[in-house]
Amino acid sequence: MKDVTAELVQAVSQSVLSQGYESPVPIPDFHRELWALCCDPHPYVAIAAPRGHAKSTAITHAYVITTLVMRERKYVLIVSDTEEQSSEFLSDIKREFTDNDLLRDMFNVHKLVRDQSTDAIIQFKDGHQCRIIGKGSEQKLRGRKWRGTRPDLIVIDDLENEELVSSPLRREKLKKWFYGSVLPAGASNCKIRMVGTVMHFDSLLNSFMPPDEECEHVSPLCDRHRGAWYSARYRSHPSEEDFSIVLWPARFPEAKLRERQADYSRQGIPEVYAAEYLNNPISAENAYFREQDLRVMTPEMREMPITCYGSADLAISEKDRAAFTVMYAGGPDDQRRIQIRDRRKGRWSSDKIIEEMFSIVQAHGIKDFFLESENIAKGLGPIIEEEMRRRGVYFTLHKVQPSKDKQQRASPLRAMTRAGMVYFDDETEWWIDSRNELLRFPKGRYMDDADALGLLVASIQTLIEPPTPAEIYEEEYQEAYMDMGFGVCPHTGY
């Protein structure tokens, strides 16, 4: 048995496997990086790589075969979106062991003693055997022992699809299956290697990616992070606007990438390009909340007196146990711009929710607070009213019946931000987190910020009627009239 290195995988790929590749091109540098990640001693490695960049060929094919022929690993489990997909990966590997004479001669391959669509056992001339099985997502994996051992290498390739990640319930179900079945399926020395493309901020793969605030920017095309998972996220080029360098020039030159991006944009799906080639599920072109629209206050604005209102999106039901309670305080200034002055966020009990509500009310002198009618109906209303009497702090609790559609609920907030009428206090500790949650909407794991802030802005618009054209005319007339020096004489009264 020999420890497999990136250089060894490259040698096997170049000298033995390349004859079976379609339109082979020189090995790109980032494939060498993928192999180095896979050969790292860290037990858990997750890699997000762009679509079409041969990540499966590099990892699920070349790396797996090298670990088997070098006898570093002997029992491999390949898991993919469907069993059919994993059987295709396995079929390509079996073909190398049956049809690739160079590989068979070099490593003394004898025959397949088991040749099924999702299960293969390879025997070498000295009697050594190795096994590969393929499974689809959410299939039973427990108890998969062979010769008294569990898999010592699990490769997870494109486990998630667009339909799966679009459903919160299916995302949650997949995560439970992964932690309850996939991770325990391996032996004590098992390596798990996961590769795919990020299609949702709350996807399983993305949960292993480098946190924005902690990642190491290895290059404009790669972020890495070594924690519970050793993870790496690759992009075909630095950003939607930046093509200054590309990840694989021989296969995807700048002109080809620009042409492909333009085609996705013409079809009205720029977010698909952003996900598949930049590992960013949201495109700046059609983001629900655009970065340039999330404006921040000037020092002068912070000194302006405003009438503050409050709102909250409460996580108080069993199904919301993974969500956060989020509260906002803000209101219009004399130019009708809504200034967001405060935000509270946490996973709190009912007692703590009420404590935070009164804290934000008293901190900003809030007289009107907006809550979804469902939250009040669940018993918080009477408790809040009793707490008002006990504390001697009174405010009006407005019951709001929100739309069930999250994007429709947030549409007043989007309209106001795009009109340049919402400003945030960027000197607060909560600003960056709030900003990031809005920029990920509606593909982020949490939508609590958009819900709470959307409720605040929509309610303020309803409570404060804009001036009518006649009122605007009268105000302008009075200002002009006073500027002319007319009015009542303070001495004669005429």
How would the blueprint of this fold be written?
Elements: H1 6-17, H2 29-39, E1 44-48, H3 55-69, E2 75-80, H4 83-99, H5 101-106, E3 109-116, E4 119-124, E5 129-136, E6 153-157, H6 162-165, H7 168-182, E7 191-196, H8 204-207, E8 216-219, E9 222-226, E10 230-234, H9 254-266, H10 270-278, E11 295-296, H11 299-302, E12 309-313, E13 325-332, E14 338-346, H12 350-364, E15 368-372, H13 373-391, E16 396-400, H14 406-418, E17 422-424, H15 431-440, H16 448-463, H17 469-483
Parallel strand pairs: 1-7, 1-10, 2-5, 2-6, 6-7, 11-17, 12-15, 14-17, 15-16
Antiparallel strand pairs: 3-4, 4-5, 8-9, 9-10, 12-13, 13-14
Helix pairs in contact: 1-2, 1-3, 2-3, 9-10, 14-16
